Every structure is written in structure tokens, then in C-alpha cells.
Amino acid sequence: MSSINQNTIRTPRMHLRSATRRQERRRNLPSAIARRTRVLETRRTNLANTIRELETDLRQQRNALDALTIEVVQALNRRDDERERYEMLREERDNLRYAILTNFNQSNLGMEYKELKRRWFEYVHNEDEDTDINYFNNLKARFNDVSALFEELMETGLAPIIAQKEHARETYRLASEHHYSLYQGQQYIIGVISELEQQLEQALNRDRQLNQARGKRQRHTRHKRGKKYKTKKGHY
Q1: How many domains does the chain have?
Q2: Are 210 and 47 in contact (CB under 8 A)?
């Protein structure tokens, strides 16, 4: 009789403890969900800030690229113009050299130069013991004098165009270096933009994942709580 009374006393107590645990779990469930939600929202807020910063940086870099691209195009056009000018002066120098040489050959001094050159060639290749040394010395001295006159005439005639050509070459070199420097800067910014675009795409993908996770957790929580808790329609 005593044993029956003890069992009837224990059974309600066991049910009471089980019910208490269930109530505690039910009370803790919203707290856990709230903590997860706060963590998720914090991540989303930080990620949103990161996305805004990346978008700002990307916009600034693209604006800088647009401005620099204009400079690169202008520098390229100038470089090409300077190269054309340099090539034109080279052609003018060659034409002038040919004109000076033609005029010299047609002049009396030019005719004498060709004759001295011919006689010098014959003397060198037909030299024998009977050759007059004075003839050799006179021929050599006159040939050297005419050669020096021809070189002086050529140098004097080409000096102006050569000076212009050298100045054009230096200008072309500086224009080329300036363009290349701007081009390198342009390529660097293009690389920065590419990296920022990749970072932004990764951040946007992460943001979509967090949004999906947030939606799934809300729907999943609402579905689980539907059997035990009364919720308002449309309330998450």
C-alpha cells in the first residue's frame, strides 16, 4: 500500500520536471534565434559598409582612369607627330646630302676630285721602281686638299638640317618617355580596377548568401514555431 502511494507521488513530479525543461527550452529558443539574428545583421551591416567603400573606390579609380586615358591619347598623338617630324628631317638630310654630292660632282672641283681619285688608284695599283716620288707627293697632297674641301662643303651644307634632326630626335625621345610613363600609370590603374571589381563581386556574392541565409532562417524558424506558437500572419 505504501509502495503504490510513492509511485503515485513520483509520477506527477517526473512529468513536472519534463514540462519545466520543455518550457525552459522554449524560453531559450527565441534568445538563441535573436543572438543568431544579431550576429547575422552585424555581418550584413559590415559587409554593406565594405560594399559601399569598394564602390566608392571603384568609382574614383574609374574617373582617374578616364582622365588619364585622355592624357595617354594626347601623349601618343604628340609622340607620333614628333616621330613623323624626325623621320621627315632624316629624309630631308638624305636628300640634301645627295643634292650636295651631285652639285659637287658636276662642278670643276668635283671633276678634279674624280680625276685625282682615278690617278691615285692607278698609281697605287701600278707602282714600280721608276715612279717619281715627287709626282706621288704632289698627287697625294692635292687629293687630300680636294677631299678636305669636299668634306667641309658637305659638313657646312648639312649642319643646319643635322641640328634640326638632332633636336627632333631628342624631342621624340622625351615624348616617347612621357607617353610610356603615362601608359604605365594607366595599366596600373586598370589592374587596381580589376582587383576592386573582383573584391566587389565577392562581397556582393557574400551579401546574397547572407540574405539567403537570413531568409531561410526566418522561414525555417517560422515553420518550426508554427506548431507550438501562435504567430501573426506576415510576421517574421
Answers
A1: 1
A2: yes
